[in-house]
Fold these 3 entries.
Entry 1:
Amino acid sequence: MAVRSFGQKLLFAIVPRLYSVLSKLLFCTYRAEFSGQQHFDQLSSSGKPFIGVIWHYSVLYTLSHMKGKNWVAMVSTSGDAEYISRFLNLSGITTVRGSSNRGGSAALRALLTQMKRYGKNAAIVADGSQGPPLKAQPGAILAASITQAPLLPFIWAAERYWSVNSWDRTVIPKPFSRVRIVYGKPVMVPPKINAGEIEQRTHDLEKRLLDLYTEAWGAFGVQGHGPEVER
């Protein structure tokens, strides 16, 4: 484990708390519009765990929808992701740390344990912690197959926004912007699927997410959240 300087420790202590306050002030100005809300309500009221699946660009505003303490999220092991992990913990959300190239298998096992043992809903980023953007990886399909929890595709788009200079062009809606939130139909994955089925179902999930992505951003007359992101 890397040794952190006093300055790093101070930033990790202050920044997540500051972001928590500022994000609440910012997010309360948004004018949210919903499509497919019944899918989220149905799964939430069932009392059984489900898996919310998103694209990485949308992670910051998505955190505001993970209300309560009944969520677990996988967060990258990178230093910058420590801020997100601590913010989530402040919000009562459990985190497990891992990515596709570092600790991913152990993190997935820890996430599954939280779902099975404590009945937590899981939040999984379909395109992983390092991309490529809008390209689904098999983690969500594996988790759904093992736990037999339904997948809930979840996409949002903003009328006006800032785009961070990162691999995924992370989006932050601007104050008083309209935000279009689209939930897809829940998806069930059979148990004990083989490698070929995992690949096909990952492709199918990607298509569902891209269709919802097109629907959400199309509501604002655009094809996506920036030309830098290849589709």
Entry 2:
Amino acid sequence: MGVGVRIAGRILRDRSRRAPDADLHPDARAASPVSSRDVQAVRSARSVGQRSRSVRQASRRFGEAVWGPFVHVSGVLWLEVTGLFFGIFTLFFAENVYRLRDQYAAGAEHRKFLIYAAMMAVFLYFTFTSFYRAHRKARRARP
């Protein structure tokens, strides 16, 4: 969980350092006074259109800036929790392999030993690949 919090903090810190874009501010020419009412109405309509576009862009960027890091961090956290879940199953099967270690070559529990060993190997693979993918995804977020 600490990795996810560090990634989110780093992403938010980097995005807050960026300079605001020039297109977020309304054009100064659209606010100048005009003598004719018709020309003024046309210019105010253009100004409203520009403002609505800039508000849409600003809200989209705000959503990306706020939710983007949380989506990324939740993905990393999901992979870590999944790896932990698979690790618990790996320990369960490893315990049974250890308990039946005397009967690996021959014995009444030979089949169970082989099944437990195979399942332990599969869940061990799932555990390591899940943590590896989380590590790789966390490294991608770094600048």
Entry 3:
Amino acid sequence: MLLDELAEVLSRSHLASVIAANQATSEFLMHRYAMLAHLVVPAQVGRVVPRDVDDDAVAACALAASAELIVSGDAHLLNLKHYHGMPIVSATAAVALIVKL
């Protein structure tokens, strides 16, 4: 489900020039991501994101993966601030946290 969403996002027209500028394709990026990703069976969770049930899948996967951090640009998720002890942050904030390590 989340991989399907990523594929859809990468195929959006406003990203085409950015992807092409990096001499890549959305298919190539999906392949590379699949090489890095750890696939999990989503945990069973109740309603997490009141305004967007689709975002519950992100929380379910993060919980199943014992993630340390949830990175998202989605306002509904970001408004939660944290889930089961996992901070929910923007990509910019995640990079800043990683650089500090």
